[in-house]
Specification:
Blueprint (H helix, E strand, L loop, with lengths): L1 H13 L2 H30 L2 H22 L5 H9 L4 H25 L1 H8 L3 H26 L4 H24 L3 H25 L8 H11 L3 H21 L2 H37 L3 H24 L1 H9 L10 H23 L4 H25 L2 H29 L8 H21 L3 H17 L1 H10 L8
Length: about 475
């Protein structure tokens, strides 16, 4: 065992800095995305449903205001700017920070003028909303700093910052919730204060690295690049977050808490989906460059099969996951887990399609399609949430992701036919069979949630089948590590 560990360490030290940085940035991403899920079992037991619902409403509106106040300058346009203005990376960084500061302050002024109307819309107090603007102002500075470090493969500081902030968020959050009577407000306030304190440090660090705080050319480029993408960012938000706002207005804050717990469990699957997709992109691009089109379809089917098995396990143990994450009070929310988790299956598939569209510079369809899907989501929620309650939001989200998968399937094959000599890059029959299979199995588990004994027997039979097909499954895993596969 010691010899194997020494071999692993030796190989790690021999890796180029770019590869090391890639590994650590993936770890940081997982920490950031999963830490809130890990702490969910703690706070769901310390807060009432209403208080936990208030906290999730705060998180939802934070995303809305962030898109408006940052113009998403800390997204893809920042990486593009690092490449375009590589000789003045510090100048570009501080320009993005200054621009975000100006937009945020303007947003705060507008809010103060219309605060009564906005407070009625959001359900948040004036104090919390002002704190949100502060959080956005300084947290965006930390994001700019982290992106700047990633571009230069400086991963140690990023790791320390992410781990430190995550740990502080947990500890200070626990202390605040235990000491204060208004526990929902305490959780919100502790989260904001941690983000502000960490962000303020990086705001000052960024400011010191450049003599000029604003360069017109940089901001012109950033706005022109990002302007067409803002509708896409908003539509993505609508698909992922607007459900909570509509549930709050139509059902109440406690139902937001129930929905959020189950949705967060589904997001566990999203971490896996995103990790696999991120690993898949370089491999896909290389195979497209080499014109090895058939192997892309074959490997997609194999990876999708592996994803199907992982997601089915999440669906199968939904009652146990809800109990661990939140306790008996939230058990009625188990019926939201299947549609949300199943949505991740289709997110993975259409994400693969989008990778190829981006490769051929055919990404305008993504914005239009996302807007249509967001509109469908809002319409379906408006119709079905009043009828079936908060559970309906999980199924409307699923319908929208199926819509995105189907439309992207036809579009990516259209792009493929017009770009290459081949007729089709992906097989409809294979993907359709897998989709029908996971939908049917999900339906079976929805019925079996009421009978634990039969459900466990069904799981055991399924696991026996997996063991019987273990060689085929191992081939999927090997795709992730062999030289000809994803790397």
């Amino acid at each position: 065992m010691k010899r194997k560990w020494n071999t692993i360490l030796k190989r790690y030290h021999q890796m180029p800095v770019a590869a090391k940085a890639g590994i650590w940035f993936i770890i940081c991403s997982v920490i950031q995305k999963s830490f809130s899920l890990i702490t969910t079992p703690i706070f769901t037991r310390l807060l009432t449903k209403e208080q936990y619902g208030e906290y999730n409403i705060y998180l939802t509106w934070l995303q809305v205001i962030t898109i408006i106040c940052t113009f998403r300058l800390d997204f893809g346009v920042f990486n593009k700017g690092m490449s375009k203005y590589k000789e003045d990376k510090d100048g570009y960084t501080i320009t993005m920070q200054t621009t975000t500061t100006i937009i945020t302050l303007i947003g705060l002024i507008v809010y103060l003028i219309f605060q009564n109307f906005i407070n009625q819309l959001t359900g948040l107090s004036t104090l919390v909303t002002i704190f949100i603007f502060m959080e956005i102002l300084f947290l965006s500075a930390m994001n700019f700093w982290m992106l700047r470090q990633r571009y230069d493969f400086k991963y140690r500081g990023v790791v320390l910052a992410v781990v430190g902030m995550s740990f502080a968020n947990l500890v200070i959050g626990l202390v605040a919730v235990l000491l204060m009577e208004e526990k929902g407000f305490a959780r919100i306030l502790s989260c904001i204060m941690v983000q502000v304190c960490f962000g303020f440090v990086f705001y000052i660090i960024n400011m010191k690295k450049s003599k000029k705080i604003y360069i017109v050319e940089y901001i012109r480029f950033a706005f022109l690049f990002n302007l067409p993408l803002i509708p896409h960012y908003f539509s993505s938000y609508i698909l992922e977050q607007s459900d909570r706002i509509m549930i709050q207005k139509m059902c109440g804050v406690q139902q937001v808490a129930l929905y959020s717990v189950s949705y967060n469990i589904g997001m566990l699957a999203k971490i896996v989906v995103n990790s696999v997709n991120n690993a898949l992109i370089p491999w896909q691009y290389r195979k497209l460059e080499e014109k090895q089109y058939k192997v892309i379809d074959t490997n997609l089917i194999m990876l999708t099969t592996g994803m199907l098995i992982i997601l089915i396990l999440c669906i199968a143990f939904a009652p146990e996951l809800v109990y661990v994450m939140a306790g008996k009070e939230y058990m009625e929310a188990i019926y939201v887990v299947p549609p949300v988790t199943l949505s991740m299956f289709f997110v993975f598939i259409y994400g693969v399609f989008c990778n190829i569209e981006f490769f051929y510079d055919a990404n305008k369809f993504t914005m239009v399609n996302s807007l249509v899907a967001a509109g469908i989501n809002l319409g379906l929620n408006f119709i079905f949430i009043p009828i079936f309650g908060y559970v309906a939001a999980g199924y409307t989200t699923l319908v929208c992701y199926i819509f995105l998968t189907v439309t992207h399937f036809f579009y990516v094959n259209y792009v493929y036919r017009n770009t290459t000599e081949e007729k089709q890059i992906f097989s409809m029959a294979s993907l359709a069979r897998l989709s029908v299979l996971i939908i049917v199995i999900t339906g079976i588990f929805l019925v079996l949630y009421k009978n634990a004994v039969i459900r466990y027997l069904f799981i055991i039979v399924g696991l026996i089948g997996v063991v019987a097909k273990r060689k085929q499954i191992m081939n999927i895993i090997k795709l992730l590590i062999k030289k000809e596969g994803i790397q």
